[in-house]
């Protein structure tokens, strides 16, 4: 779609002062998908030259905000030596998008849109990701993905602040994972997406609920909970107003699927454990 209110596109390397009507341009798949009458200038991140995927010495994985979904998918399938590697492809496939979108859409764009069905939000929240944010004055701050997305379309970004990267800790990458997704349609947007991650070191279990809720909820248990304990934890953490409501699913249906998929994930990851909750 033509953005007929945009009068200029600038290179982000120039570090020019931020102005009202500015927006960061990554892949542009959202920006050019619908009218943006409030925009006047796009700040293009395409020439920043950030390495899409980096494995620091500590074994973590740093994903640049400009890393495309296609690049992440290829890396997870061919180059990521981690127990949790299959989860990356599962979340990439949750886009249900064309190859054109896969090759342009970015991880950072998906997070910064803050949409409940954003599968990169689901992936990085479930693996305990941390966002690196850069302000206009060059200062940096870090915030967990589960705290970065604060509601449907809302995120913890100040005016002109930039999402530089998301880092997934090495320990999370070695977790055994379980993935469940539900949609009202065969090729529809996620109405509920639940991911479980079982820590091989201490046996703790994290269950992350997204798509069904206005923001991701990551519930952590020092030991795998029973069915009743899991349900009680979800009820305590997710309020009635936190279940999302749109054309892709009513809150009552999303709540039902959230509980159902969370239990399936719990059962998948705890079956066979000595301390299995019944």
From TrEMBL:
It comes from Streptomyces showdoensis. InterPro entries: Diverse_Substr_Oxidored, FAD-bd_PCMH, FAD-bd_PCMH-like_sf, FAD-bd_PCMH_sub2, Mopterin_DH_FAD-bd. Gene3D superfamilies: 3.30.465.10. Residues 1-173 form the FAD-binding PCMH-type domain. One of its GO terms (molecular function) is FAD binding. Pfam families: FAD_binding_5. This is FAD-binding molybdopterin dehydrogenase. It comes from the Bacteria.
